[in-house]
Write a structure and sequence with these properties.
Bound molecules: adenosine-5'-diphosphate, magnesium ion
CATH topology: Rossmann fold
Distance between the termini: 19 Å
CATH superfamily: P-loop containing nucleotide triphosphate hydrolases
Number of helices: 13
Radius of gyration: 18 Å
Structural class: alpha/beta
CATH class: Alpha Beta
Number of domains: 1
Length: 294
């Protein structure tokens, strides 16, 4: 059996017996510092309030974002699963609000060089996440690095965070262009949803989206949808300084209410009619297979 076939078998097995599949949502942006990690954490907390079990995968190589913002140090990270034989439950850290997170650590960057037996072990473990979580939020690094694009290509749902800063639209556009060009990107399999962050008003958020959408629909013919906006909010930056997510620190802050609204939209049945949950195993093997076979 070759390695691709082995992986397919693991995934096939994971889909038998009507096993539940988690919804995998990837948060990304054209450049850093626009609010991805805040989006990941606060949406996770809002999903939790709506009764969903949520796990965040911190895949921002090197930068241990989520743990800093949660003020919780993980005991283990993905590397410990890969190299120390820890299992998936041991590497999940439970943060405030009972949101779980997995710190990618250096494990993410090393994925492409792993031997097959390691990969099988990881994927077998990740399959278990589908039973532990309803929603898995992947917080990626910014930009068009190959490793980021791999995550986006594998993801059925992409949340693109954009801000009104002058370069933000061009950076977002560059990211979408790189994604669109990627050899394994399948337009029909991915939905791209835009969040306008740090805006002054709802109108500014819509204008921002319309500007981006104008170039994207003209030059890429790639459908993107507007998910909503998060206002510029001092309460959010204060909360970050204190290492408590704003949705916990001040649930009625303008930004927290905006995240609440966006989470509700993402859970809206009507909007999700055509959404196909893929599960974690499929997500991951997509990344791994792609790396191995080009
Ligand atoms: N809606 C907002 N209002 C005010 N400040 C914000 C908002 N979103 C993000 N920030 C600021 O931007 C910083 C970077 O956010 P972060 O979520 O860490 O971005 P990224 O993960 O994209 O690098 C935060 O520490 C915070 O100070
Ligand atoms: Mg971040």
């Amino acid at each position: 059996m070759d390695q691709a076939e082995q992986l397919r078998n693991i995934i096939k097995k994971s889909m038998q017996n009507n096993r539940p599949l988690a919804r995998v949502i990837t948060v990304t942006s054209g450049k850093g510092g626009v609010g991805k990690s805040n989006t990941a954490i606060n949406l996770a907390l809002q999903f939790k309030k709506l009764g969903q079990r949520v796990i965040i995968l911190d895949a921002d190589f090197g930068l241990a974002n989520i743990e800093i913002m949660f003020g919780t140090m993980p005991r283990y990270n993905l590397s410990d699963l890969i190299y120390q034989g820890k299992n998936i439950r041991e590497i999940i850290t439970w943060g405030p609000g009972e949101v779980g997170f997995i710190s990618g650590g250096s494990g993410i960057a090393g994925l492409s060089n792993l031997r097959q037996e390691y990969l099988n072990y990881i994927i077998q473990n990740l399959v278990e996440l589908d039973a532990i979580a309803d929603i898995i939020i992947v917080d990626t690094a910014a930009g068009i690095a190959d490793a980021v694009l791999e995550f986006l290509v594998a993801s059925g749902e992409i949340l693109l965070v954009t801000t009104p800063e002058p370069t933000s639209i061009t950076d977002s556009y560059s990211l979408l262009k790189a994604l669109h060009r990627h050899s394994r990107f399948v337009q029909e399999d991915s939905r791209i949803k835009v969040i306008a962050n740090r805006v002054g008003s709802a109108a500014e958020g819509e204008t921002l989206f319309n500007k981006l959408n104008a170039v994207v629909s003209r030059y890429l013919t790639l459908p993107i949808e507007y998910l909503g906006m998060v206002p510029y909010d001092n309460q959010l930056s204060k909360a970050v300084m204190q290492q408590v997510p704003v949705s916990i620190q001040n649930p009625n802050a303008r930004s927290a209410l905006a995240y609440e609204e966006i989470a509700a939209k993402l859970m809206n049945k009507e909007r999700n009619k055509n959404l196909r949950k893929r599960g974690m195993a499929a997500f991951f093997s997509h990344i791994v297979n792609g790396k191995k076979t080009g």
